[in-house]
């Protein structure tokens, strides 16, 4: 729990029972978690008897993101995912399942990169590959 308490305090948040439950869901896992606020709310309701307001969820996730513990991934104007893997990497986005899947950096190759505008530098590169079901009938 001390690990979560330090994350919350360094993010400017008091370590309440609700926020500790949020941290446990987010950071007590081996695999990456991609989630929306609604996804997180459903997970918390399923795994905890504690009631957590949407404003607490938004405030906690936003503070953790601002401190660099989560990565924000906007998909559409009204749909934002968060990622517990803050390292540089890329994603598949399955539009039918509304799901993000990690792509490792070594699986992407960039060639013929465009010239960077004067006075600017590259802060990071993130590639999003959008997927959809193949509904076309295959020819024999």
Characterization of the model:
It is a single chain. The chain is of the alpha+beta class and 140 residues long. It has a single domain, classed as Winged helix-like DNA-binding domain superfamily/Winged helix DNA-binding domain (Arc Repressor Mutant, subunit A, Orthogonal Bundle). It has helices at 2-10, 17-27, 37-47, 54-66, and strands at 34-35, 71-76, 79-83, 90-94, 99-103, 128-131. A three-stranded antiparallel beta sheet has the order 1-3-2. A three-stranded mixed beta sheet has the order 5-4-6, with no helix packed on it. The N and C termini lie far apart (58 Å).
CATH homologous superfamily annotation: Winged helix-like DNA-binding domain superfamily/Winged helix DNA-binding domain
Count of alpha/pi helices: 4
State Rg. Answer: 18 Å
CATH C-level class is Mainly Alpha
What is the fold-level CATH name, i.e. the topology? Answer: Arc Repressor Mutant, subunit A
The profile of the biggest β sheet is: 3 strands, antiparallel
Strand order of the largest sheet: 1-3-2
Shape: globular
List keywords for this structure.
alpha+beta, three-stranded antiparallel sheet, globular, about 140 residues, three-stranded mixed sheet
Task: Quickly describe the structure.
The chain is of the alpha+beta class and 140 residues long. The protein is built from four helices and six strands; from the N terminus they run ααβααβββββ. The protein has one domain: Orthogonal Bundle (Arc Repressor Mutant, subunit A).
